[in-house]
Design a protein that fits this description.
Oxidized Rhodanese, domain 1, 10 strands, 316 residues, binds guanosine-5'-monophosphate, alpha/beta, HIT family, subunit A, five-stranded parallel beta sheet
């Protein structure tokens, strides 16, 4: 059977920020947090869900709760409040079949019940109906339009690259070493290259890792990087648009579904190259979705070409 994503994290095949670990439990930061504090407390032994627990697991589940409590204290949310939840099967939205509990906190999480009687229930019911109508309309719109409505709009920090930000990545020659194997790329620690007086003159190719750095670039800067820096290029548009045409040897990782392709992305993207991403152009939501995941896994520098496919086509 395929190892679960959490087994791969436990086996150090995929990086994660580990908050706690012992012989039977690991706690990691969630890659797509829905609260300021969002930690997953995971049983190391693969138990698909609460349904598969047996009486022998009582102590394990009890210890998971204690680990969650201690992490809540560590993050100073023990007094303000927090929630510990586990999802079981489809109706609860379980996506990883490997027992884990979410520790959520750091801001008000909202109530989970409507205990104030029928009036309140009525309001909730009407709100749900309105919400379903909106979702229905949006789904219809998305089905008929290639540029779909984003379900949850995340605000990204937008930093525009200055010429100085690019200088060190623009070199005269392409890298001499071939790409590492996918496995090596995943496990390889990020070691920023140190330039000392004796080693490299300023114009020779050199990669300086800048983990977590995401910057937006213009068409001219994008062309410069394509022409002279060792890079890995990602097309963040949908597969249909990619199939109709894309830039150079771009690899397609659709930004709208990137959460489900994280292992593939990590196996494909090298850590010793500048990462370039583009989508349709404009707001660059799709590119930012991909960049955000790479950023969390300490890739960088990452450059988003904001003109995207539209500007590329215009200048061809
Ligand atoms: P579930 O939906 O099964 O209750 O929760 C699974 C959680 O695992 C989700 O919140 C999701 O964001 C998180 N997740 C999925 N893949 C990864 C990953 O590769 N790394 C980390 N840290 N969290 C992940």
């Amino acid at each position: 059977m395929e190892p679960t994503i959490f087994e791969r994290i436990i086996n150090r095949e995929i990086p994660a920020t580990i908050e706690y670990e012992d012989h039977e439990i690991i706690a990691i930061r969630d890659v797509a947090p829905i609260a300021p504090v969002h930690i997953l407390i995971i049983s190391k032994r693969v138990i698909p869900s609460v349904n598969a627990l047996s009486a022998e697991d009582s102590a394990l589940v009890g210890r998971i709760q204690l680990v969650a409590r201690d992490l809540a204290k560590k993050y100073s949310i023990d007094k303000s409040g927090y929630r510990i939840v586990t999802n079981c099967n489809d109706d609860a939205g379980q996506t990883v079949s490997h027992l884990h509990f979410h520790l959520l906190g750091g801001s008000p999480l909202g109530r989970m019940s409507t205990q104030d009687g029928p009036t309140r229930f009525g309001i909730v019911k009407e709100s749900v109906i309105l919400l379903l109508c909106a979702i229905g309309l949006a789904t219809g719109f998305n089905a008929m339009n290639s540029k779909s409505i984003t379900w949850v709009k995340k605000e990204y920090e937008r930093v525009v690259a200055s010429p100085g930000d690019l200088d060190k990545y623009i070199t005269d020659t392409q890298p001499t070493t071939p790409l590492d194997t996918a496995a090596e790329r995943v496990s390889k620690p990020i070691v920023p290259t140190v330039i000392t007086e004796n080693t490299k003159p300023p114009t020779t190719p050199v990669f300086v890792a800048e983990p977590g750095v995401v910057r937006e670039i213009t068409y001219a800067q994008f062309k410069q990087l394509l022409a002279s820096s060792p890079y890995y290029l990602i097309d963040a548009r949908g597969a249909d648009k990619y199939a109709l045409g894309h830039i150079g040897k771009a690899t397609n990782f659709y930004g709208g579904e990137i959460q489900s392709r994280i292992p593939e992305l990590l196996a494909s993207a090298p850590r010793d190259r500048v990462i370039l991403i583009y989508c349709d152009g404009g707001e660059c939501e799709l590119s930012h979705h991909v960049a955000d995941v790479l950023k969390q896994f300490q890739y960088g520098p990452i450059f988003i070409f904001t003109g995207g496919w539209a500007e590329w086509e215009k200048n061809r």
